[in-house]
Design goal:
The chain is of the alpha/beta class and about 150 residues long. The protein is about 45% helix and about 20% strand. It is built from 5 helices and 5 strands, in the order βαβαβαβαβα. Strands 3-2-1-4-5 form a 5-stranded parallel sheet, sandwiched between helices. β2, α2 and β3 form a beta-alpha-beta unit. α1 runs parallel beside α5.
């Protein structure tokens, strides 16, 4: 029986694998449905081509991106309540649209060390914390993973 829905936002970096492992473990323990979402901008895939070749480029990219997700997940034992999603569009609006569609109880997003000064913008994590209630900002660090696990499962 599925008790809740978890949404994991990933950027397909190698560090994402440990975050995916944590999210899958959390969903297994809670009996939750898990959706792993990766968002890309169409301009990162299509290079000023005509409509037919643009569609083909997006289709090919979608297929290779799903393969990358599956490769990151290959060492992790999965269960049937895990779905993989690749969407194209503006990051914030696509995440908001998917969150409305999926209706997650918990959203998990990885954190990185900031590469720029704080006054230049807070990015996706800050926007998510303003828009949604149950956000987990996780670092692939093992000690933080244990703290988050205890926080969510209780």
């Amino acid at each position: 029986m599925v008790h809740s829905k978890i949404l994991l936002l990933t950027n397909l970096e190698p560090e994402s694998a440990s975050l995916m492992k944590m999210a899958i473990g959390m969903s297994n323990e809670k009996g939750s449905k898990l959706s792993i979402l990766h968002v890309k901008t169409p301009l990162s895939v299509v290079n000023m081509e005509n409509q037919l070749t643009a569609k083909r480029a997006i289709y090919d990219d979608h297929r290779t991106t799903l393969k990358k997700l599956e490769e990151l997940l290959s060492p992790i034992p999965l269960h049937r309540n895990v779905t993989l999603e690749v969407r194209y569009g503006h990051l914030k609006s696509t995440v908001k649209e998917y969150a409305k569609e999926y209706g997650p109880d918990i959203i998990i997003v990885g954190s990185k060390k900031p590469k720029r000064l704080a006054f230049m913008g807070d990015g996706l994590v800050n926007w998510l914390t303003k828009k949604f209630k149950n956000i987990i900002v996780a670092n692939p660090d093992e000690s933080l993973r244990l703290q988050i696990k205890q926080l969510v499962i209780q």
